[in-house]
Design a protein that fits this description.
255 residues; alpha/beta; Metallo-beta-lactamase, Chain A; seven-stranded mixed β-sheet; 7 helices; 14 strands
């Protein structure tokens, strides 16, 4: 299983428009953060979790020429507004299976109404095969367990993924992980988890909360993502335990 971080930034990205802070003006490439997305390659298949507003740029950078499945955590702009950019992949390979919760599908059908409107007349449409997540499922040779988490008043789905040898989980955009989901996140080789900033936030985990969850779950390794512009990569290591690191755009890991 190979993991690539397509983007590790918060909804406004880093640098943020109009900001002159030391992170937004940093020349460290690890401080340049496109909106969050994750690519997993397994058994010659390619799965992406969230298709961010920056997906076109990410796909060109990583030379993505095929997509076998897409998992959606929730229907916020920074996590789904790249959906139209699957069209060139559709032209070559046909419709793409997309997995999301029932509530996320309700929102996706509103935002992308034209995809599902049989009377639509206009340019090419993304071709999708909708799948509603109701329980564990298998895709791209991976067993996937949904992990419901709380993001303010929005339902978000995290994911635990297993290839039979390694166990990883991806949990973004949340301020609370319910006990039932926590129990499904034990015994991980890698935990990828939301850590927006140092200060508390009403709908996201901040670093102290994130580290508390990591201490409870005890994964072998943890990587922080969905990072804002008040966390500088070069400084963060001083504040993190040995088994915890900041992720950065383009980071690749073999599990």
């Amino acid at each position: 299983m190979r993991i690539t971080f397509l983007g590790t930034g918060t909804s406004v990205g880093v640098p943020m428009i109009g900001c002159g802070c030391r992170v937004c003006t940093s020349d460290d490439p690890r401080d340049k953060r496109l909106r969050t997305g994750l690519m997993i390659e397994n058994e010659n298949q390619r799965l992406i979790i969230d298709i961010s507003a920056d997906f076109r740029q990410q796909a060109l950078r990583e030379k993505i020429d095929r997509l076998d499945a897409l998992l959606i955590t929730h229907c916020h702009a920074d996590h789904v507004f790249g959906l139209d950019d699957i069209r060139p992949l559709n032209f070559r390979h046909g419709p793409i299976p997309i997995f999301a919760s029932e509530s996320t599908w309700r929102q996706l059908r509103k935002v992308f109404y034209y995809i599902f409107n049989s009377n639509h007349i206009g340019g090419g449409l993304p071709q999708v095969i909708p799948h509603t997540i109701v329980c564990d499922f298998e895709v791209c040779g991976l067993m996937v367990t949904p992990l419901p988490v709380i993001h303010g008043n929005t339902e978000v789905t995290g994911f635990r993924l297993s290839d039979g040898r390694s166990e990883i989980a991806f949990v973004t955009d949340c301020n609370l992980i319910p006990k039932e989901s926590l129990e499904k996140m034990r015994g991980l080789d890698l935990l990828i988890i939301d850590a927006l900033r140092y200060k508390p936030h009403p709908t996201h985990l901040h670093v102290e909360q994130t580290l508390a969850y990591i201490a409870e779950l005890k994964p072998r390794h943890a990587l922080l993502t969905h990072i804002g512009h008040d966390i500088k990569y070069a400084d963060a290591g001083r504040d993190l335990p040995d088994s915890v690191e900041l992720a950065y755009d383009g980071l690749k890991i073999e599990i």
